[in-house]
Amino acid sequence: MLAGLVVLWPGGAPAHERTGVGFDRQTQQATVTKVVSVSCSSVNASGGTPTGDTSTAEGSSAEQQANGTCKKATIRVDTGDDKGRTFTEIVQPDQSRQLYQGEKVVVAYEPSAPKDLQYSVTDVNRRVPMTVLALIFAVAVVVVGRLRGVMALVALAISFMILNFFILPAILQGSNPLLVAVVGASAIMLIALYLCHGLSARTSVAVLGTLISLMLIGFLGSWFIDWAALTGNTDDNTGLIHGLYPSIDMSGLLLAGIIIGSLGVLDDVTVTQTSAVWELHEANPAMGWRGLYRAGIRIGRDHIASVVNTLVLAYAGAALPLLLLFSIAQSSVGAVANSELVAEEIVRTLVGSIGLVASVPVTTALAALVVAADRPDPAAASVPAPEAAPAGAAGVGAAPQPRGGKGRRRKH
Q1: How far apart are CA 260 and CA 178, in angstroms?
Q2: Measured CA distances, 2 to 6, 186, 194, 212 (Å)
Q3: Is 207 exposed, middle or buried (0-12, 13-18, 19+ CB in 10 A)?
Q4: Of 7, 44, 253, 316, which is most buried, counting CB atoms within 10 Å of its CB?
Q5: Model pTM?
Q6: CA end-to-end span of the chain
Q7: Are strands 104-109 and 119-124 parallel, antiparallel or unpaired?
């Protein structure tokens, strides 16, 4: 892992000329200082009805814009060279995002446009609610987890640093996304597991089980991405990335996402299985590795059922708008599954789930083999206990009696 970090370390993301498309544009913070209601026709925000038929979506929208009431918002730029500059923007009545006085927004800046059109509102500034939510999360983790909760937050911060300063820039510089993902995921895993659970044989077994499962996910993911001819270039964002950096292997980027996405759940499964085997050994130190494995795998079956369902529902929830579009179009299940957008999610879900399922027997077997070596010494166990002294013998050589209240009975 260290060798991979040294060889693949990017030294920063490569520079490029901004395209002004999507996320690749200059943005500034701004505030809505004034909002007034105006007639849409007075600000020329409507135009003619495209179809002449108000029963269609286009005709209904145009009719609403022509006869409805629009909002004229005055926005003040709060950051950048043009700090204090104001501009106006017309908000049509059918727009999903309306503007309100005092609202914090994000504006895009296009220097090549005419001066009156250089700025436009692109999004709402959500820094305050997101910060408050993050603080609530951190407090909850620390209150419940205490020291381990603090260590978990530190590991989370380090994980984001590895993602931002190594994985993303290395991929942008043209390094193999699979190698970058494996090295970066290994670094995240080692730091997170050892930092949260300590440097011990138990943690090392979880690390080894996670590494074996990640290799399986990488192999299966590479095989099925090639077999299913998945390009990884399926939406506007991936198209923009490919346009800016044509050297990036988009299918490799898809595989890297599968590996990194599966890592978090894998950590949970391997740590839980290892802890279960260790606790079984504590309860019965004489149990051999076969007995420990059988008992641990029974626990793992319940874990498999819940974790796989969790992973599938997580991916389904992320793709819910896409699935809703297919439902509106009344497409067949076969047609939906065959489209590349959905096929990517299917491959991502099933490959990750196979790795999770495989991690249970692999980690359980490793933990059972390691912990079974710490069995009680048979020679020590066979040493007979000293014979008890006869009643009333209190002289020299009498066996010492235990002190304290446990095990003592009052003679009646």
Answers
A1: 10
A2: 6, 10, 16, 18
A3: buried
A4: 253
A5: 0.69
A6: 71
A7: antiparallel
